[in-house]
């Protein structure tokens, strides 16, 4: 009886040990499983936090990019305005330079060279002995008519017998000679002009124009186109 009892007690201990072992295994397994799940949860949370952080950074960067894009468009608009202003200033400067050059040419301050023509005015020959010789001489008004027509037709520079004219030039007739800015020249009078030779010639040859008027006043009128005419400045500045 005592032996059976001891066996029972021993069996209970074995069973208790097995139960404890199984229970311990279950507890350990449950702990490990919980720990694994916690790690997974932490990993998911970390991943989510990282994604959220990246998303926030992306949103901030997009805002910065939009702001920079707006500033870039403003700068581009400013550059466009500046380029437009510079273009207008360049065009204005070019026009001013061109006008200044034209004024300097008119004033006779710069050397000019280019195509043009020469108009020669020579005294006519009296048809009768008792004709008035003055009716056949070239006078200052004849020279003026030619010069004015040349300037009106676009001549850049004009000279009389090599004497270049400027803004305050004067021409005075004194019998068979004319005085240009204090210099006397006898006939024939050669008026030289720089400009579009075809235009200048056409303006002088208009029906009823300068040539016809002077020929009707007994003046010998000759036109010769020149490929290149050169005039020195009236005075150096």
UniProtKB/TrEMBL annotation:
Task: Note the InterPro entries from the entry.
Answer: DUF881
Q: Which organism is it from?
A: Peribacillus loiseleuriae
Transit peptide in keyword set: no
Q: Which UniProt keywords apply?
A: Coiled coil
* Signal peptide, first to last residue: none
Q: What is this protein called?
A: DUF881 domain-containing protein
Pfam assignment, any one? DUF881
Q: Which family does it belong to?
A: Belongs to the UPF0749 family.
Which parts pass through the membrane?
Answer: none
- List, alphabetically, the PANTHER family matched: UPF0749 PROTEIN RV1825 (PTHR37313), UPF0749 PROTEIN YLXX (PTHR37313:SF2)
Q: Which residues form a coiled coil?
A: 58-92
